[in-house]
Write a structure and sequence with these properties.
This is Uridylate kinase. It is an enzyme of class 2 (transferase). With 257 residues, the protein is of the alpha/beta class. 35% of the residues lie in helices and 18% in strands. The chain is built from 8 helices and 11 strands. The strands form 2 sheets. A 9-stranded mixed β-sheet has the order 4-3-5-2-1-6-10-11-9, with helices on both faces. Strands 7-8 form a two-stranded antiparallel ribbon. Helix 1 packs across helix 3, helix 5 runs parallel beside helix 7 and helix 6 runs antiparallel to helix 7. It is globular, with a radius of gyration of 17 Å. The C terminus is likely disordered.
Length: 257
Amino acid sequence: MEGTTTGTPAFRRILLKLSGESFCRPGGSGISVDEVSRIARQASRVASLGVELAIVVGGGNILRGGQLSRDNDVIKEATAHYMGMTATVINGLALQDAMEGLGCETRLMTTIRMEEVAEPFIRRRALSHLSKGRVIILATGTGSPFVTTDTAAALRGKELGVDVILKATRVDGIFSADPEKNPHAVLYPHLTCEQVLADQLKVMDLTAIGMCMENHLPILVFNFKKEGNIERAVLGEPIGTWVSAGPRPRSSSPPAT
């Protein structure tokens, strides 16, 4: 496998949440081969560490169901959401080919059946793939309309027993304000799910945060655009914002598990 990473992982099993915007250039749409290749390289190096890796992909670079339904009175809202779910499969297929081109064995799994291109998501089968060192790419969210892929990530994280959800963003973590608009915004190194909910910080949708809090599932929000940051997150280096489900923020980087 290309560019094997060395080091001791801080986590045994992780879920990486990638938005649809991860697959295109900033401010663009569609799929950028360069961006997909960059994600694939980092994810493949993580897999080479022996970490069990599940990836939930969004589809906003191709179509946002919620936005589409608001912009017209022809396509029903539920239909628009289903269209958005199928968009995630396009991203999943692109990432699968990119990773397998690097020698990383993967399985694309969907909650909407389409056996010609992907396996149906079955929890026991997904766990079997992980135990065999295969990266599973999870598309079509929960398979139900009106539910975001963030919530799908929280659900699958609990279902698959991951140690942490890695929320990939284009900024360095959670800030007091939008750092792309306010240069004085302050980065929070540690937060709790309760603080995120109380302050309505834009990390993941509130349903996803509530689910993580209820299930004691921590979240690490970090800038995946910086080359090597996915590996640094997996190795437990102090990057981004650690969101814990406990009563108080953590005072150090995540411990090894």
